[in-house]
Amino acid sequence: MNAKHYEWNNHEDTYEEALRRRLISLEKENDILRSDLRELTKVFYKLLEGKNVTKFSDEFVQKVQNFYKEGKKQKKASNDKVFTIEDVVEKFGILPNQVKRILYIRKNGK
């Protein structure tokens, strides 16, 4: 018998194999990045533990929450543009993230 007829066609050079290898390497890289993000998040919150974040008085928080609730009701009734957090930012001169914290976190009693 001729030896050439029994040679094994090497699949290592196929596109599918190259794609499989690339996928495996990207999965490993993704796992490393997720692990890094998890560790960075832990460190971030550890650093924040001792820091003073901006604190607002209960009266101010109530004023912002009431303004937002009334604005939402008023805009729905008059079919005006959508009332957003940006409207609260403009009215009270605070940052969007501070408004979000006041509206969503403080209302849950945290």
Describe this structure in words.
- This protein has about 110 residues and is mainly α.
- The longest helix is centred in the first third of the chain and has 35 residues, at about 15-50.
- It has 4 helices and no strands.
- The radius of gyration is 29 Å and the shape is elongated.
- The protein starts with 14 loop residues before the first helix and ends in a 5-residue tail after the last helix.
- The protein has helices at about 15-50, 60-80, 85-90, 95-105.
- How would you sum up the global shape? elongated
The overall pLDDT, averaged over residues, is 79
Query: How many helices does DSSP assign?
Result: 4
Task: Indicate the proportion of strand residues.
Answer: under 5%
* Helix-residue proportion: 55-70%
Radius of gyration: 29 Å
Task: Give start-end ranges of low-pLDDT stretches.
Answer: none
Supply the helix-strand structural class. mainly alpha
Termini Cα gap: 82 Å
In short:
With 110 residues, the chain is mostly helical. The protein has helices at residues 15-49, 58-78, 85-92, 96-105.
Strand-helix topology:
Blueprint: H1 15-49, H2 58-78, H3 85-92, H4 96-105
List keywords for this structure.
110 residues, mainly alpha, 4 helices, elongated
